[in-house]
Every structure is written in structure tokens, then in C-alpha cells.
């Protein structure tokens, strides 16, 4: 096991001083619009759990098991509908302030998926007051806080994992944060060392650590190292949507579109992956790009019809890079930035602002880069281009 002292030392390293397709409306409530991709095994297990709950929806154990299954399916398919099914299962406890801890954690995961990050954080705060040794709650809180760019608070949540006998989880959490706050090279080396020394790492943990290493390396411009980590992660799981999206984005930057088509050939039912296939087809000048554009327009329209705001970043990329509508892309990118502030979210704001000749729109992103010392080759290049287009002010561009 990695010595706790080494992880504690890492804490100082981390925190040193458009035309849209019309949505289809069914003729009646019984009309089947789409059948969700549940395997025979999943369907059997789900049917049994649903049957167990049908007589008494307030049975805690089967409700928790069924909600977990729905959330796992939602994550695997990047499909928010499964999270809605999970909420339906948890409805008897949904508004209860003293719901069982397992229910509270599942509620936080559902709210997180909906980008109701503040709601999820409130649930997690209350849960951790009741269960301060809940490692999954600390980790979920850390991830949400990082997405919101509340790095100091995220660091405290990562650090809490140290005393809960979760050293590799804490190490990955701290390294991810450190890479966004001016310590990318040190964080990368620290996580590599931690992963090598961990005696036993679950596949899920290995997948997360390798993906973090790949993303840090890519942001630093260490593309061969990033490629190596991405390939290792894909050997652990070739179906993880986040990993596939991150690797496809890496391949797009490397001008390797044909590999994206192969990688995602059977995964385009997922909106974000279909977008990356369309971007690859655009690089290739493929004849069927127009058909993909029509599909994406219909999917974004359907998402808005459902009242979702989960795809604003992807829609901003689609609007900017495929439709070439920079002015329309800016508000989409900024709306996405209001919810989440990861490097990919910063990038689409800056790209849209540059294309729209509106550098002022990127000011909040520039200020975050300046205040954190975030080291990202692409973002630094964009910041330089925006500064050359028009002065953004000393505060924003001060080095």
C-alpha cells in the first residue's frame, strides 16, 4: 500500500500557494418510439427486481438494487432516461430528509447526471454529516467540485479518502486536481508512481487512473505518452463512454479521423459519440456527413424538448465546427460553461469566441486559466490568439 505520508505530501503539490429538424410527436401514448438496449441478462434481472417491488414499492433492498442497475445502464449508454427510471424507483424516499444513506447517494448520482450539481452537493453534504466514512460520497463530491472548478474544496474531499483506506483513489483524485492547478508534470509522475506501487487495483479504478494519466499527458502535449495510456485504458474497457469520447477527441486533434470511424462504428446511438464520428467524417470529407448532421440536429432538438441541458457543450461544438455558425455557438458554449468548467468546456468557449471575433466572451475562461495556472497546450494557444485579436485586459492575460 502507498504510504499515507506520501499522499499527504502530494496535497502540497496539488495546492501550492440554426435550422433544427422538427421533433417527432407520437400519435398516442401507447406508440413505441424506441426500444432501449437492454441485454437478455439485464432484462431478466430488471424484470425480477421490478416484480419484487410491484407489490410493495417501499421495499428498500430491491429498490436500491434496481436503482443501481438503472444508473449503471444509464452510465454505460450515456442515456439519461435510465436515471429517470432510477428516480421513479426511489420516489418513496426522494423528498425525505432522513432517507437511508444508500438512497441519498443514489439521489446525488442522479442529480449529478442531470447537471444539477448544486443539488447533488447539498445531498452529499447532508449524507457526509451522517456518514463521514462514506468513501463513495467523498469521491462523488470531489468529482463534482472539480467539474465546478471549486478546486480547494475538491482537494479537501480527495484528502478525506486517505484516512478511509482508499490510497489509490485519493492519489488519482489529487493528481487529477493537481494537473489543473499548475502542477501537471508533478501530478502525472505522482500518479504513475502510485499506480505502479498499488498492490491490487480493480478494473474500474485502473480505468479511471489510466484515463486521468492520458488526459494529463495530452494537455501537456506529451502525445506519445497519452496514446500509450489511452490504449492501456481501452484494454481494460473498450465500452466506457467517457474514455471513448476522450480518446476520440485526442484522435481528432491528431488528425486521425479514420481511426475514430473504426473505434466508434457500433456506438453511434450515443449522441456524444455520434458527434465525434461526424467530426471525423468532416475531416475525411465523407459523402454521408449530411445524413449525420440531420441525425444530430434531430437528437439535439429532442433533448431540448425533454428539457435537458446535458448536451450544450456538444451542441456548441456541433454548431461551431460542423454548422460553422460561430455567433450561435457562443451562447451555447457559455451556457455549458455556467454548469461545468473542465478543460474541454473552456476550449469550446475559447474556440467559439475566436471564431465569432468576440474575445470578451472568453474572459471568464481566461481568468480561470490565469488564477489556476492550468497547463494546457491547446488552451494556451487559444488564449494567445484571443489576445492577439483584441485586448482582453491586463487581469485576463497577465502572465
Q: Characterize the main sheet.
A: none
Radius of gyration: 22 Å
User: What general form does the structure show?
Assistant: globular
Q: What number is the mean pLDDT?
A: 88
Name of the CATH homologous superfamily of the domain at 1-13 and 41-182: Tetratricopeptide repeat domain
* Distance linking N and C termini: 40 Å
- Enumerate the spans where pLDDT stays under 50 for 5 or more consecutive residues: 17-26, 29-35, 391-399
CATH topology name of the domain at 1-13 and 41-182, in short, is Serine Threonine Protein Phosphatase 5, Tetratricopeptide repeat
Count of DSSP helices?
A: 22
**Strand tally:** 0
The helix-strand sequence is HHHHHHHHHHHHHHHHHHHHHH
Describe, in plain words, how this protein is organized in 3D.
This protein has 399 residues and is mainly α. Among the domains are: 1-13 and 41-182, Serine Threonine Protein Phosphatase 5, Tetratricopeptide repeat (Alpha Horseshoe); 332-399. 70% of the residues lie in helices and 0% in strands. The chain is built from 22 helices and no strands.
Give the helices and strands, then pairings.
Layout lengths: L3 H11 L25 H15 L5 H18 L2 H11 L10 H13 L3 H14 L4 H13 L3 H10 L6 H12 L5 H14 L5 H18 L2 H14 L4 H13 L3 H7 L7 H14 L4 H17 L6 H11 L3 H14 L3 H13 L7 H10 L4 H13 L4 H4 L2
Helix pairs in contact: 1-9, 2-3, 3-4, 3-5, 4-5, 5-6, 5-7, 6-7, 7-8, 7-9, 8-9, 9-10, 9-11, 10-11, 11-12, 12-13, 13-14, 13-15, 14-15, 15-16, 15-17, 17-18, 17-19, 18-19, 19-21
What tags apply to this protein structure?
single chain; 399 residues; mainly alpha; Serine Threonine Protein Phosphatase 5, Tetratricopeptide repeat; 22 helices; globular; disordered C terminus
